[in-house]
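Feature request, filed as a ticket because there's no other form

It would be nice if the structure record came with a short human-readable summary line next to the tokens. Right now we just get the raw output. Example of a typical job, pasted below so the devs can see what we mean:
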Amino acid sequence: MKKKVVTLLFIVLSGYVSSFAATKYFFYVQLANKSNSPYSISNPTAYLSARALQRRAQFNISIDSTDLPVNPVYIAQIANSNVTVYNRSKWLNGLTILVSDSSIVSQIRALPFVSWAKYSGKIESSASLTRSKSKSEPQIAEYGSAAVQLNQVNASYLHNLGYTGKGVHIAVLDAGFLNVNTNVGFDSLRLQGRLLGTKDFTQKTANIYGSDSHGSNVLSIMAGNKPGQYLGAAPHASYWLIRTEYAPTEYLCETDFWVSGIEFADSVGVDVVNSSLGYTTFDDPVLNFTYANMNGKVSRASRAATIASQKGIIVCNSAGNEGNKTWKYIGSPADASGIVSVGGVTSTNESSLFSSYGPTSDKRLKPDVSAMGTGTAYINTSGSVASGSGTSYASPILAGMFACFLHYAKANISSYTVNSVIDAVKRSAHLYPFPTAQMGYGIPDFEEASKYFVSATNKPSTSKAKISTFNKEIRIEFSSSQPHETSLYNVSGQLIYTNYNAQNSLVISTQRLNAGIFILKIRNDSGTETIKIQL
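Raw output as currently delivered:
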């Protein structure tokens, strides 16, 4: 969705006003290095949880410099410049700062360890905080259950086998989680200790339960449980609730809040992230993205989403609700490589009119798959079953089902990757291998995904591709025209490139890669072929 906003209660607004009585400005500060850091790759327990390290070990993902926190000496020096260091990003090695006088930023730009600093938004004066932007998701005032949306993806196959997400940790990045701490629909989540914690990267408040229903609705689609009335997609998973979205305004700094949120999710060891958020244009037009920017590399949120996927996290992000608007296309971070961007469909398997179109500006397939986004059932903040529309509500259906699928994989598959899990789900979708610009590969079937996953895992390939390296390129000639998933990894097991196509050949640019050994994996219906390449 482009951000979802509801009218804030007066008492909540009063809290915002007291925190930000005058206009202040956000800047993103790009640091040049992590030199002389007190942290080291050899001691990751200082900055990653045991669960995060376990996930990396499971997928053979090495600890690298992106995992090292921002140098605290740099943070202290910037803070001494009479600014507030608001958020930090270790993956991108940058800081979000808040200043009351933007002229101070010139001093920060002059610091030897700062590459650049750019304006990214503002906290406006108290008078402007009372406004609320119109909702981008049409609401449908009808009641129902979750049966239609879950049956559409054949969720019962996994649920009936007992794979309901138990032991899988999901992070929900959103705008707020009104009444989750008291809502009867989340009783089992609280009583069973599966509400793991909360974190706020926007207002830094201890209470994220006091405003904005959007995150609550999204969470209920995964975790909601009212016996006989409603059951979420992953009713036995455990959840982190993370606020990255500042509801009253829309500025570029919120993409940086998002980066901090997903880095936190990684650090506590989550397996799946649902983000029903998206960014295209802002309250200050000078900050606007263009469709040309939707290539997965411009937005810091998109870059972080790709890094998260490389660190073993399945990231589901709503494609957006711009399909019948001027923008039309997906936003950020739905344009990111390696993640699952989710479009919306109706109960009759047609595209929701509002669902954003792909592809990315660099012509990659997006959205990847779709789920019910029109008339989706959820539990509202008063504990009643309601329904609403938007890709924001499609994404958690699949995030929850990916949690169940991981539950299944952990119990039945000795060795798998995030990429192979996502691939199985894509292949199960009803349009595969002929995607559309609005639905991607379409609606997954988790019974078919499970069967394919078992048959395809570790299956040797009977098809040999011809590989050549020349002039900073890897050239591949496939032995058949059936759809291929082609992935390139470094020797540490980190995903560098992935592509899905049904063409007879593929060219991968290696212009930005250092010399060394790389692993190329080609997967199709015949199995998986693994080739070692020296560049």
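Something like this underneath would help us a lot:
Residues 169 and 270 are 5 Å apart (CA to CA).
The chain has a mean pLDDT of 88.
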